[in-house]
Specification:
Elements lengths: L10 H37 L17 E6 L8 E5 L8 E3 L4 E11 L14 E12 L2 E8 L10 E2 L4 E4 L11 E7 L2 E3 L2 E2 L2 E2 L9 E6 L8
Antiparallel strand pairs: 1-2, 1-13, 2-9, 3-8, 4-5, 4-7, 5-6, 6-9, 9-10, 11-12
């Protein structure tokens, strides 16, 4: 006589699988919630309106006169700064406004242009560079510096504090400072000491001279 015949999976196996399925669903829900929270932490602050524009000063020493310029293909709002007197190599690059350093390193590749070999091979990108967060969704960027920055990520800097030295690293044809002001994700026209630079588009070559008022506060 044949014993009892069963078909399908044992009941015990099914009861074991159901708790596992519920556990997986709970874990997936937790992961999704954590991902949404992470996105919100990053995106929500960027959706808030920007704060008032800080009173940015030129990123060079007090009292020095520099040429600000752009050229076709440079990109809108980008400013190149060249000193009008003296050697450009190694000039101090200073913070336009107080803030926190968020980037201090290499953008692209350095190339080989130095004071000893000014016609050396170009690199790529911005070379040695620094980015400073000034709060209220405002930041500044400083590119093509000669040497590793004098500041580190997370460091608080004061307006006028030296952050590096002017050079020609990265994709640069001559020693100068490439400078940008940004509001949130967007580049904007640079203002120095409350006055617009006049550099808005790169559809033509444009230069203007300005004297730095990035001077120590009078106590």
């Amino acid at each position: 006589m044949l014993g009892p015949v069963t078909t399908g999976r044992p009941t015990r196996a099914r009861t074991h699988r159901r708790p596992r399925s519920r556990t997986v669903r709970v874990l997936l829900a937790l992961v999704a919630a954590a991902a949404l929270l992470g996105v919100a932490v990053v995106v929500v602050p960027m959706l808030r309106p920007a704060g008032p524009r800080p009173l940015f000063q030129m990123p060079v020493a007090c009292g020095e006169t520099w040429q600000l310029g752009t050229y076709p293909g440079h990109d809108d709002y980008d400013v190149d700064l060249f000193p009008t007197e003296g050697d450009a190599w190694g000039r101090p690059v200073v913070a336009s406004y107080a803030g926190t350093v968020t980037v201090a390193g290499i953008n692209g590749s350095l190339g080989g242009r130095t004071p000893e070999n000014p016609q050396g091979p170009r690199g790529r990108g911005g070379g040695y560079w620094v980015k400073i967060d000034h709060g209220g969704k405002w930041e500044t960027q400083y590119l093509h510096m000669l040497e590793p920055p004098l500041v580190k990520v997370g460091q608080k800097v004061a307006q006028g504090e030296q952050i590096g030295r002017l050079g020609s690293t990265g994709n640069s044809g001559a020693p100068h400072l490439h400078y940008e002001q940004r509001r949130g994700w967007d580049k904007v026209e640079t203002h120095f000491d409350g006055a617009p630079s006049g550099i808005t588009t790169d559809d033509r070559e444009y230069t203007v001279k300005r004297t730095s008022n990035n001077c120590p506060a009078v106590s």
